[in-house]
Design brief:
heterodimer, A: mainly beta, 4-stranded antiparallel β-sheet, about 0% helix, B: about 110 residues, 11 strands
Chain lengths: ~120, ~110
């Protein structure tokens, strides 16, 4: 059973870079079986997809965030990461990491981390 | 970008009721439509993938149908643990972009 756990600072200052890591357990991130993705949810609002990354190849980002987002994979640590630059209060949200299942699961998000709240405030 | 519109945005129902939530895509997405349940303070949970396939461990009172642009999630007999917010999500879009519906909050009447 694959499990995901987000980690990173819970408070980020405006204009700085938000950095989060998702640690994967129960499978090797380099197995090539999944895409790895980030999703966020402002308090009381809906879900917004941020981007996805494979262990090889180019990541895909939400066009509305593309200029500020960088995702990467660290196979040695079995982790993948999110960086979001030039943050504002509008980036305050719960951030989730998740697995994108393959074609057999309709490319759904079939495993999620518990989420981590990031607040942007001075 | 493909837009996903759910209806209703909120719904009040009673235990035992049959409930249907609708999701409409702004263009055809074949069957690349997934449904999630989210309870307060928790991560979303996958219920249905590829429009009509029940995720393992999900009760059979949940079902999904549809293809193209119109999809439904049906709960055949509401249980107390089903009161939550439900989201649809498309995984079809080219150039690549996942999008969610705005959510449907299911509340106890």
């Amino acid at each position: 059973q694959v499990q995901l756990q987000e980690s990173g600072p819970g408070l980020v200052k405006p204009s700085q870079t938000l950095s989060l890591t998702c640690t994967v357990s129960g499978d090797s991130i380099s197995s090539g079986s999944y895409y790895w993705t980030w999703i966020r949810q402002p308090a009381g609002k809906g879900l917004e997809w941020i981007g996805r990354i494979y262990t090889s190849g180019s990541p895909n980002y939400n066009p509305s965030l593309k200029s500020r987002v960088t995702m990467s994979v660290d196979t040695s640590k079995n982790q993948f990461s999110l960086k979001l630059s030039s943050v504002t209060a509008a980036d305050t949200a719960v951030y989730y990491c998740a697995i994108v299942g393959g074609e057999n699961s309709g490319y759904s998000f079939d495993h999620w981390g518990q989420g981590t709240l990031v607040t942007v405030s001075s | 970008d493909i837009q996903m519109t759910q209806s209703p945005s909120s719904l009040s129902a009673s235990v035992g009721d049959r409930v249907t939530i609708t999701c409409r895509a702004s263009q055809s997405i074949s069957n690349f439509l997934n449904w999630y349940q989210q309870k307060p303070g928790k991560a979303p949970k996958l219920l249905i993938y590829a429009a009509s396939n029940l995720q393992g461990g999900v009760p059979s009172r949940f079902s999904g149908s549809g293809s193209g642009t119109d999809f439904t999630l049906t709960i055949s007999s509401l249980q107390p643990e089903d009161f939550a917010t439900y989201y649809c999500q498309q995984s079809y879009s080219t150039p690549f972009m996942y999008t969610f519906g705005q959510g449907t909050k299911l509340e106890i009447k």
